[in-house]
Amino acid sequence: MIQTRRAALAAAACATLALTFGATAAAAADDCKNRGELDTIYCDDNGDMVAEPPKDKSKWKDPGTLVFAYTPIEDPAVYQNLFKGFTDYLSACTQKKVVYYTVQSNAAQIEAMRSGRLHVAGLASGETGFAVNLAGAVPFAIKGNKDGPRMYRQVVVVKKDSPIKSLADLKGKKVAHTSPSSNSGHLAPLALFPKEGVTPGKDYTIVFSGKHDQSLAGVLKGDYDAAPITSDIYDRWVMRGQMKADDVRIIYRSGTFPTSSFAYAHDLAPPLAEKIKKCFFDYKFSPELQKEFLGDDRFLPVNYKKDWELVRAVAVASGTPYNRAQFDKENAKKK
After folding, report:
1. Cβ distance 266 to 139 under 8 Å?
2. Beta-strand relationship, 137-145 and 148-149
3. Nearest CA to 52 among 23, 22, 26, 32?
4. Cα(217)–Cα(99) distance, rounded to whole angstroms?
5. By the 8 A CB rule, do 221 and 187 touch?
């Protein structure tokens, strides 16, 4: 019942997103010199690959209430509580009310920002490209510490007593991918696994679980034979005591990718956007956030064009470029 409801919510979000695309594309500016991969309602004249503020200043937004959301990589309620101290701080720093918006899917989060209902968001690494191109998200920060930004690996987990020893052993198996826009949970496997002798969707059955924690839980319960997930989720489950490190075996580790980005909506008034950035960079994580984010204690600046180059390359190599047609196609598979 819960999975059916989640599927219905995801389908509704995708349908709403498609309608929003159709309704707003007609309003695209005709004087844009460059868009690159951005949707037609956005412009990138300076070539930094993210949407610029509207040229018509009357379209700049300076809302009395800022809406913040964090990627639904796990149970949204968990992060609503963890971010309570931060959202209170952000409210005091910006002199605006800040509310936390719980989203159940990446598609819903992207639609909310595109439609103007979401102003600031933490976006999963793979989701970031779709949010930039389709929702006008402007990534500006990433979690990290004194040693630099947080990076992660894609890992493939199986139960500890599973006979599966390598990716090639996944042939004929049922493997949980997370969601179509997930880098480690879907796009990276499509791009990287064929080099290891197995092609997702051809050599094994893909089942979308919805979230990394649901993929991991499904492997532990025996619902799935294996699952590609972000190493952050594996590390956090061990740290929280939700499982022991040897409850599963890791049969594959990728190279490193940047972890979740934090972005603001492109049409926020530039002075407000700059204020939000300063608030983020001045914030020191609470002990609870530091524990949850594996020792990260601050936000660091990020450059989407440079820092997401590898993630974009994986998306293209996987046959899943960050455009509207591909987004609609991939999400339609979940209905």
Report:
1. no
2. antiparallel
3. 32
4. 30
5. no
Q: Which domains does the chain have, with CATH numbers?
A: 2-148+259-332 (3.40.190.10), 152-257 (3.40.190.10)
DSSP string for residues in 29-50: -S--S--TTS-TT---TTSSSS
pLDDT value, residue 267: 98
Distance of alpha carbon 326 from the chain centroid: 16
The residues, any chain, with a CB within 8 Å of residue 19's CB and separated by 6 or more, are none
pLDDT in tens, 300-331: 999 999 999 989 999 998 888 888 887 887 67
Q: Which two tokens stand for residue 117?
A: 């209902």
The encoded tokens of residue 255 equal 């190279």
Structure tokens at 143: 């979690």
Contact 125, 260 (CB under 8 A): yes
Pairing relationship of beta strands 248-258 and 97-100 according to DSSP bridges: unpaired
Amino acid at 335: K
Amino acid, single-letter form, for residue 69: A
For 26, the 3-state DSSP assignment is coil
For 206, the enclosing helix (H) or strand (E) is strand 205-208
Q: Which of 235, 233, 236, 216 is nearest to 288 (CA)?
A: 236
Model confidence pLDDT, tens digit, residues 16-27: 555 545 444 444
CB burial readout 53-83, b (16+ within 10 A) else e: bbeeeeebeeeeebbbbbbbbbebeebbebb
Q: What is the pLDDT of residue 286?
A: 94
- What does the block give as tokens for 175? 């493997």
DSSP 319: T
Single out the residue of 116, 122, 114, 84 nearest to residue 100, CA to CA: 84
- Three-point CA angle 320, 324, 325, nearest 5°: 65
Strand partners, 122: 70, 262
- Say if residue 205 is exposed, middle or buried (CB neighbours under 10 Å; 0-12, 13-18, 19+): middle
DSSP string, 160-181: TT-S--SGGGGTT-EEEE--TT
Start-to-end C-alpha separation, the chain: 15
